[in-house]
Amino acid sequence: MDTWIGLMSGTSMDGIDAVLVSFRENAVRIHDTHSIPYPEHLRHRLMLASQNQATPDEVGELDTLTGVIFADAAETLIRNSSVDKSSIRAIGSHGQTLRHQPSGPSRFSLQIGNPAIIAEKTGIATVGDFRSRDMAAGGQGAPLVPAFHQFFFGSKTEDRCILNLGGIANITWIPSNPASPVTGFDTGPANALMDAWCLDQTGRAYDEDGHWAQEGIVDQAMLSDMLSDAYFDRPPPKSTGKEKFNLGWVKTLVQRHGETRPEDVQRTLLQLSVITAVRQMPQSPAMTVYACGGGTRNRLLMGELSQALSPIRVLDTAELGLDPQWVEPTAFAWLARQTMERKPGNLAEVTGARGPRVLGAIYPA
User: Fold this and answer.
1) Is the pTM of the predicted complex or chain greater than 0.90?
2) CATH of 146-320, one of 3.40.50.10840, 3.30.420.40, 2.40.128.630, 3.40.50.620
3) Which of 6, 20, 3, 17 is closest to 78 using CA atoms?
4) Topology (CATH level 3) of domain 3-138+327-363
5) How far apart, in whole angstroms, are the C-alpha atoms of residue 250 and residue 230?
6) Cβ 173 vs Cβ 182: under 8 Å
7) Half-sphere exposure of 287 (CA within 13 A, CB side)
8) What is the mean pLDDT of residues 327-340?
9) pLDDT per residue over 252-309, tens digit each?
10) Pairing of strands 160-165, 88-101
């Protein structure tokens, strides 16, 4: 039985999630998992680089350093697993996004975490650079996980909306009617702005369970200003990242609205994440929403989503057999399998590419 490793670090830049899985038909078996945090000094450097505050030498060094940490995550996962290493067909590494610019005359998406280092250190074929081929075909290069969502979460009896609450939120709409297309796109910020504001104001990397936000109240004038951003009304295909939604974006709005309690800003940012996700979902009262990603651990965020969507049910993907934390790394293990088997990994209806494409670059063992 072939097994596969998926490595994922998202826009939160907090560390790497690694998963060892096998696939059968439309089923997934997770054999082992491992998470490794970035050292704080490295995370700080990555944050600066993502805001264009890095020289070419710095970007090159970060590419090497993150490649080593990605390889360490994979090696620790393998070492702690009872799975025979010889059964691992390939590693799929998303890498660490530094910059995502899916529009304009010279579009690109830059992920670092040198896959050659991962292949060299582990002795296992590694697939990386998943976004470039889709973008070369006219697509956004993101989101890429909807193809996996369709594979694993599709249902013939229930319309499903998969809501990924990472740094950026994205949705995948999977109709029960197989004749209807699967669609998806980035709705805007999920945790990215809340985490950035919390770190700036409190020194904490995130607002655990939304406790700090719960101390505040929504500033309706500021929320309306936030919601006026053109991104939210842009039709799909669309994708975004910290290039757009970052601490500078928040501070510009705070300065525009004068004296505002920091906790009120945090509460307003949480409401922004809720409203922008809910407003852009398909209007189907028969659907069920299944959430995944780090935002599922924020009780206030999940509670507000449930309230905003009522009577539509809001559950997490554990209800469908896959823990919310491991959906994205599992998706990149699956994408590696697609690449190694020369099968498409994108959905053109989602990314806007000219058609299905085999994604990624293979670094042989």
Assistant:
1) yes
2) 3.30.420.40
3) 20
4) Nucleotidyltransferase; domain 5 (3.30.420)
5) 15
6) yes
7) 23
8) 98
9) 999 999 889 999 999 999 999 999 999 999 988 889 999 999 999 999 999 999 999 9
10) unpaired
